[in-house]
Every structure is written in C-alpha cells, then in structure tokens.
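If your schedule permits, I should be very grateful for your opinion on a structural question. I have a record of one protein: its chain in single-letter code and its fold written as discrete structure tokens. Kindly check, if you would, that the fold set down in the tokens agrees with what the sequence suggests. I remain grateful for any guidance, and I place the record below:

***
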Amino acid sequence: MKLRKWLVVCGSLLSTAIGFISLNVLADDDFSTTEASWKHSVEIYGLALNIRGDTTVNDQNLEVDVDPQFIMDTLEMTAMVHFEGVHENQWGYYIDYSFMKLNGETNNILDNTNNIVLKGDIDIRQGVLEAKGFKRYVYGDNTLDYTFGLRWWDNDIDMQLYRKDNNAIFSEINLEDDWIDYVIGVRWMNPINKDWLFYFSADVGLGADTDFTSSVLTGVRYQINSWSDLNMGYKSTWVDYDNEDNFAYDTASQGFLIGWAAYF
C-alpha cells in the first residue's frame, strides 16, 4: 500500500499543529524541562551515507555498494527532516523523514548470468519514514525514553543494464515497492555540561516480509543559544527484507550526521 497521500496529510496536519502551538510555547534555556506543557523541535540534517549489501530485483541479483561520493555525483533531490515533541517531559513523539533521488551511471554491477560484467543507467528514489511515540523517565540529569512505532521504506528503481562489450541492452528493471517494519527501542540522553549533551538510541523490529531491522544513532548536541542546537552524530540502519516475489533488500546504511534544530 502506497503511503504518499498519508504522508502529505500527516505533514499538513503536523505543520498546522506546530504553527498553532508555537504561538503559545516559550523557548527554554536548557535541554531539560520547560514551564509549558508541550515542547517541540524541528531539525534539518544531512547524512554522509554509505550503503552496503545486496538486492534482488526481478531475476537480477545485484551488489549494493553506494558511497558518499557516488551519492554526491548522482544526487538530484534530497530532504531530511526531524520533528519532535514532548508533553510535560513524560510522553512524546517524533517523526523523521529522509528522502533522496539518484540518477547516474555505474560500472560496478555483477549479473548472475555467466558472470557478465555490466554497466547500468540507474534512477533510484528512496524514502524512509520513522514515526514513533515514547515514554520518558527522568533520573537526575539523565533521561531514558522507551520508544515504539514504525519505519516505512519506499523504493522506486528504474535501471537499464548494458553489456560493456557492445553497449546492447542486457536487461531492464522497473520496480516500485514499499513496506512497514514495526520497531521498539530506547533512547538515553546525558548532559555533559551546560552546553553539550550526549545521546544514544537503538531499536529493533520486523515486518510481514522483513526478517530483521535495526537502527543505532549516537552523538552529541551543542547548544548554540536558548532556542537552537547543533547535532553531530553517527547513524546505522540494517534491514533484511524479501517479499518472495520480485524484490529482496539486505543492506546496511551508515554514515556521519550533522543537523541544526530549533526549539519552540
């Protein structure tokens, strides 16, 4: 089931809610509590992403080996944003969406037929949405969030594979597939001093066609002023998905993250 319309509706509702709440919420002076019942944030971030693993599309077994240089050379469009809110420092939510569209050429494709080395023209669009709720517990200066929610993967792949010896089209691939994984996890936050905060989060889960998925995010946040901070971290996400029809995706995506967040 495609969730694009659902995502647009949720984004519109979230923007409306944030706009309304921001008229009534005052920014706090630190990372912890606030006098207002709700505290919200919005963060824009980027990832120096590496993707390693393998995939099967229709009857083609392909090695996945994507590094930050390939992404920068072939990137057409990207968006990475994180919304978060917490009520009275007890219950909260966050919505994270990362999207990228790549278009380019590669010479590193190995086909499973006679070990023919191919080159390919690739058009890939991948979106990953995480929507989670959490229950927060405060232990002195530390906070521990127990998280629960879902991760939605949306992949569109268009590819033409050519024989290197004569440039004849060997195969064409056109695929649209999306799925939902259900995850549970934890997030721990510990202030280092008045300006720096250390955090660590991890989750595990599965779905109807996913044998395993997991994500780890850790790093530090530097408080720039009373209403914004800088996020510097490292994120890794694993997924082992197979719809047993025309698409399998067993990869690890990881890389350094940097973002800027505003609180209101």
